[in-house]
Design a protein that fits this description.
The complex is a heterodimer of chains A (about 325) and B (about 230).
Chain A lengths: L1 H13 L4 E5 L5 H6 L2 E5 L17 H11 L7 E7 L3 H12 L4 E5 L6 H15 L7 H20 L5 H9 L8 H9 L11 E6 L7 H7 L3 E5 H8 L5 H8 L8 H15 L3 E7 L8 H7 L4 E6 L7 H16 L1
Parallel strand pairs in A: 1-2, 1-3, 3-4, 5-6, 5-7, 7-8
Helix pairs in contact in A: 3-4, 5-11, 6-7, 6-10
Chain B lengths: L1 E5 L3 E8 L2 E8 L15 E4 L10 E2 L2 H12 L5 E5 L4 E5 L4 E5 L7 H11 L6 H6 L12 H13 L4 H17 L8 E4 L6 H11 L12 H10 L1
Helix pairs in contact in B: 1-7, 2-5, 4-5, 5-6
Classes of the chains: A alpha/beta (about 325), B alpha/beta (about 230).
Organism (chain B): Candidatus Methanoperedens nitratireducens
Protein name (chain B): BadF/BadG/BcrA/BcrD ATPase
Keywords (chain B): Iron, Iron-sulfur, Metal-binding
Chain lengths: ~325, ~230
């Protein structure tokens, strides 16, 4: 939450000159910045929020829907990732649109067709007012290289999982300010981290703001975060380049594509086990048995619902999972 | 040295004296009575409150169950621990576990609601079940709604015994969804003392279920065995 608080400080200076565009999941920030808009990932405010949404399936989408519809987040427009990731967002995004916020629906191709994604990116560019700062994607590419270094240092035990996660998850919107974000990345402190019980965290990110720190305190070293890794993995200098790279965004692709990618990545990181985080009422819950049968590691499945601290029941599972890994 | 399991409903103390297992069970609110005169350094704790009570070492109920069951059935491959507020299924061979704690329909609390409704003791549920001539279908997967369904069945003419048997089947069906294929399936936890629930589960799974002599103290024993 520290990052978000810092982010809020910068927003006050920036919203005068730049339009602020909310995003509901990964939308190439390269294009949003290039169109002179400032991305704001609405998910970043949720783990620290105290909201109890009135009408919900998944708390992630329900909370941003309510906050945007009630204008509790100050934005100019919204991009809903409606195809290839979160299906609840398609409905909750329409609720926000009906409340009067200019809203664009963005679809990733299930089959990874770069031409389709390119056409989607051109439509998005029209919605945002077209490219005005073509140098921004190149600057973001450089920042993503720094993000990849953070990820590697974490896997090598030089940066804590919590610190690495907070940086990597912020790559979806780069805090809306490239210079400020670069400063935040540079300020990450290195320290020696015990990497006993190396685990991969797959699925959507946990809705609990302290999850990585709790896992570490309970003796589990998270060395891979599936979704945040996607945030630092893709880039591109122009629309065709962005389309060619982002068409392999694993969350939007068929499960066999995602599983093959995970198998390779987990092998590289020498993980001992997997934590599969699932969100209550999210379609990703249905993937659990497929993940279990295709990923040959001890696996713990946990489920979250509302935001806040990591609940005691989840801590019990984490502790038991650590005991299990130590017995393996 | 003792194993102390302080769970959501009861507290269990186990010690091994001259090779013989000695135990005591109390309500959770009376857990302190079990350790009068015992130094915290001589306690290996487990259960939901394992970290809130004095202990030399603590271990989760999942690991404790594996060590405890091993004492009675060394080749058990699946353990089902039906606690007051959650149910844990441990696949010992695959080193895997799942816990149901979001819904009361698969926990001991569910059968406690039923016993409270009929103003009978939990331990009487089994004999009520054995007297049932028919088993009404209780289809609801939600504990609270299953209770309203139970009342509808009473109004429809089923006897108290039959409705209790129906609730045992509803409970056992819920648990059965969590249980993987097993050669030797062992059930532990206080709820397992209910013979009606046990026979419903055996009927649904079409398989014999193994139960230690005193299923409620297995985790306290396991905590002790884990450490010693």
């Amino acid at each position: 939450m520290k990052l978000i608080q810092k982010y809020k400080l910068t927003v006050n200076n920036w919203c005068i000159v730049q339009k602020k565009t909310a995003i509901t999941a990964l939308v190439p920030p390269e294009l949003i910045f290039a169109c002179n808009s400032e991305p704001f990932d609405v998910n970043n405010v949720i783990p620290g929020s105290k909201k109890y949404p009135r009408n919900k399936l998944c708390a992630w989408t329900a909370i941003w829907q309510e906050m945007l519809s009630k204008r509790e987040i100050d934005i100019d427009s919204l991009i809903v990732v409606a195809g290839g990731d979160c299906h609840n967002a398609l409905v909750d995004g329409q609720k926000v649109a009906m409340s009067g916020i200019p809203t664009h629906f963005f679809f990733y191709p299930f089959d990874g067709d770069p031409d389709y994604l390119e056409s989607q990116l051109y439509k998005l560019s029209d919605f945002l007012g077209n490219v005005g700062s073509p140098e921004k994607p190149g600057q973001i590419r450089e920042l993503k290289k720094l993000g990849q270094k953070i990820d590697k240092k974490r896997a090598d035990g030089k940066i804590s999982a919590g610190d690495a996660f907070r940086i990597m998850i912020s790559f979806s919107d780069l805090m809306g300010n490239l210079d400020k974000f670069k400063e935040v990345i540079s300020s990450t402190k290195e320290r020696k981290i015990d990497l006993k019980n190396r685990v991969a965290l797959i699925g959507v990110p946990p809705i609990f703001h302290d999850f990585h720190d709790v896992a570490r305190a309970l003796g589990l070293a998270v060395v891979f975060d599936e979704l945040p890794f996607e945030f630092i993995r893709h880039s591109g200098n122009d629309i065709p380049g962005i389309a060619r790279d982002y068409c392999n965004y694993t969350f939007a692709r068929p499960l066999d594509f995602r599983i093959k990618f995970l198998q390779e990545e987990l092998e590289k990181r020498k993980v001992d086990g997997i934590i599969h985080y699932t969100q209550f009422a999210c379609h990703h819950m249905l993937e659990d048995e497929i993940m279990r049968s295709n990923l040959d590691y001890p696996m713990l499945t946990i489920q979250g619902d509302l935001p806040g601290n990591t609940p005691e029941q989840i801590k019990l599972r984490l502790e038991a999972f650590r005991e299990l890994l130590e017995r393996s | 040295m003792i194993g102390l399991d302080v769970g959501s409903t009861t507290a269990k103390k186990v010690s091994i004296e001259d090779g013989e297992i000695k135990y005591q069970i109390a309500g959770t609110h009376n857990w302190k009575d079990l350790i009068t005169g015992i130094d915290g350094n001589d306690i290996i704790s487990t259960g939901y409150f394992r970290k809130s009570i004095p202990h030399r070492a603590s271990v989760t109920e999942i690991t404790a169950a594996i060590y405890g069951v091993r004492h009675y059935f060394p080749d058990a491959d699946v353990i089902v621990d039906i606690g007051g507020q959650d149910t844990k299924v441990i696949d010992v061979k695959k080193n895997n576990f799942i816990i149901n704690d979001k819904c009361s329909a698969g926990t001991g609390a569910f059968l406690e609601f039923v016993a409270n409704y009929f103003k009978i003791e939990l331990k009487e549920m089994g004999s009520f079940h054995s007297r049932a001539k028919r088993i009404p279908a209780i289809n609801n997967t939600c504990g609270v709604f299953a209770l309203s369904e139970m009342i509808s069945q009473l109004v429809a003419g089923y006897t108290q015994e039959e409705v209790i048997a129906g609730m045992h089947y509803a409970f056992a069906r819920r648990i059965s969804f969590m249980i993987p294929e097993a050669q030797k399936l062992v059930l532990i936890g206080g709820t397992v003392k209910n013979k009606g629930m046990l026979s419903a589960l055996e009927d649904i799974l079409q398989k014999e279920v193994l139960v230690p002599d005193e299923p409620q103290i297995v985790n306290a024993l396991g905590a002790l065995k884990y450490y010693c």
